[in-house]
Specification:
The protein starts with a strand and ends in a 5-residue tail after the last helix. Helix 3 crosses helix 12, helix 4 packs parallel to helix 13 and helix 9 runs antiparallel to helix 12. The chain is mainly alpha-helical and about 325 residues long. The protein has a 3-stranded parallel beta sheet. Strand 4, helix 8 and strand 5 form a beta-alpha-beta unit.
Amino acid sequence: MERKRVFSGVQPTGNIHLGNYLGALKQFVDLQETNDCIYCIVDMHSITVPQDPEELKKHILDVAALYLAVGLDPKKSIIFVQSEVSGHAELSWILTCNSYTGELSRMTQFKAKSKGQESAPTGLFTYPVLMAADILLYDTDIVPVGNDQKQHIELTRDIALRINHKYGDTFVVPEGRYLKEGARIMGLDDPTSKMSKSAENDMSRISLLDDPGKIKKAIMKATTDSDGVIAFDPENKPGISNLLNIYSALTEESITSIVNRFDGEGYGTFKKALVEVVTDSIAPIRERFDKIRESDELIDILKDGSRRANDIAEPVLERAKERFGLGIR
Ligand code: TYM
């Protein structure tokens, strides 16, 4: 099969949780074997909401170390930090001039994040345009993401098609790649909203760096329903369905087979089994993380990554500037 260019990113706004891992990172690792992959730590996206500068610095390196700890290999994939490649900001401006306030107002993430504010930060509004720039800057074919990003990917395609139509072929039109199982992992405390780094309740998520005690507590406390029957029915039984989803995504056992195996058992028994599955999956990642985070190699990998990313980005940016008649050449 032909190698494809793959691009994706994660915000360094906190430690990566199971949703990020199952929705995105697990796919990143699989894809690097047979494709040309570029994985970014999107620090410029994270400042669309206020960040403590010291914390942000730490989180950038934490996410980089987690990328490596889950199995990304810098010999196979380019791993870099967004703000180290200036083309992202430059292309973002060109795309901003070719997107519309109407379409950006329809983005559900913007609506959720700006809810209740009379005036929201402009960066929060144009966030999806910067994301489109990330993707289009590398002639990306495939974008592996959780399905909460679907609307942003569709917008990226719309902008690329619009510019190609008006100015001639400029950008590769990318496709999203969403995993069915694990495409959306929900909060453990409230299975009707997605697991997120920013939710206030720490028990709502499991981070890849959580210790076994925290993992056990969060799963045993996870919200389920009162009928006590283990069945997959996301609409009527969102809590237990989410836990089944996590179990299946981590073990790669089908949901039907898990449901059959636990037939007649109570939620407590299933939750205990899930604690074991999650703990066993996360432990080796944590171990590798500790080693990598302390090594000097991490910075060298990121520097090399931004050099390689820039080499790919530069000609694409030049092509875009040329189409728009910008600059002196
Ligand atoms: P971020 O940092 O919120 O999340 C990183 C990845 O994790 C996925 N994800 C989930 N998947 C399943 N269940 C969940 N509960 C869950 N929560 C998060 C996200 O879909 C994402 O794939 N806008 C992006 C970052 C970004 C990006 C890009 C992605 C910026 N530029 C270019 C791809 C390409 C975001 O906020 O991800």
